[in-house]
Amino acid sequence: MTYKELSEKIFKAGKNKFDDMETYIEQNKEIEIAVFNGEIDRYNISETEGLSLRGITKGKMGYSYTERLDESSINMLIEEAEENGKYIDTIDKEIIYGGSKEYKKLNNYNPKLKEIPLENKIEFVRSLEREAYSLDSRIVSVSYCIYNEKENSRYLYNTKGLDLEDKRNLAISFIQVVAKEKEDTKTGISYRIVKDFSELDYKAMAKEAVDEATSRLGGKPIKSGDYPVIIRNDVFAEILGAFSSVLYADSVQKGLSLFEGKIDKEVANNKFTLVDDPFIEEGFNSCSFDGEGTATKAKKVIDKGVLKTYLYNWKSALKDGVESTGNGFRRSYKSNVSTSTTNLYVDKGEKSLDELMQILGKGLMITEVQGLHSGLNPVSGDFSLSAQGYLIENGEISKPVNLITIAGNFFQTLMDIEEIGNDFRFASNGVGSPSIMIRKLSIAGE
Length: 446
Known about the structure:
Layout: H1 3-13, E1 20-36, E2 39-57, E3 60-66, H2 74-86, H3 111-115, H4 118-135, E4 139-158, E5 163-181, E6 184-194, H5 202-216, E7 225-231, H6 233-242, H7 249-253, E8 274-276, E9 299-303, E10 306-307, H8 314-320, E11 328-329, E12 338-339, E13 344-346, H9 353-360, E14 363-370, E15 382-393, E16 396-409, H10 410-415, E17 417-420, E18 425-426, E19 432-433, E20 436-444
Parallel strand pairs: 7-14
Antiparallel strand pairs: 1-2, 1-4, 2-3, 4-5, 5-6, 7-20, 8-9, 8-13, 9-10, 11-12, 14-15, 15-16, 16-20, 17-20, 18-19
Helix pairs in contact: 4-5
């Protein structure tokens, strides 16, 4: 029985209990290969699938889900969704969406990735670890050396005739090395997110991780004070991702975002443009429809420093009397619909990282932060994060810096942007950015 046939049986069985119904089905396949000291340390192949039912009656939405995708689960799904809906107290209106006029066709699935022999993928990870050890005698350990391949399929059907599906896949490789000199130890990482296996270059990745680790040796804190700062591309993307909820309409409606009332007002330096683009090829959150069946669209959330839109699902959109922006997503089939970005990224500028350092003259470049989950407050925008990086003097890297804390306010930091680089990159959280030069941040060191 196909997913569509199962959905139709569910709709038929629940027609007397709900005004409208929707099924959301997700399939996930994953391969994980990890090596340690040349041996396969972890090798997992997993497959999961699940179905969630949303049913609406008298304006109340009920949810249920199952991992059993057959007729035996139908009655349970309907009963649990009905029961769940009874306890919804919110007066916010929700809908089962009938569908958009047009959906963009995307080519998110590369069948060749799956066809690469498993032996090649294992050999790649082994070569990556081996290369890292060979580059520098100070590399004493490779903490992580992983190849991860993910495949995701989504199916969405409802009683209004919606019939959607998509499929995507990608590969992620990650290595972390440890360098040691006397009593000083430092780590360095490298990662790649690709849809084409041939784009994985173990020599380039190993060199990147080793160079970062060895260049950090001898790092010391600097004197506390306010410093002009370059936040490296991947680090700014991680910070931006941690604060992304301030862009969500439901956060604004709950009083949890200082962007409330700021539409068409300046919220960042005019060099800063922030885009949510579900169609970008190198993005791994690309999709033609969201978790409610709304066609996704590319949009400038902040355009040359001016806030242009919040990100909406249908529940928050109806509350504001607007259309959904196609940002109603689910973390999995087990989750309710919430709000999320697709491929969120900062438009790149024209200057290289070397040029940014020349303009900076003297200051800091931040290359790693820790404590993103505990060291920031999305509501106030305040952050205080353990960090490391390099002291910049005379426009060049002078020496490594560690054991420092950077502190500031995210909303003020957006206003304090001075330059934006052209070294664009997606971070491992799916957010992309070039390196960003900030007028000043507070540094706690010696």
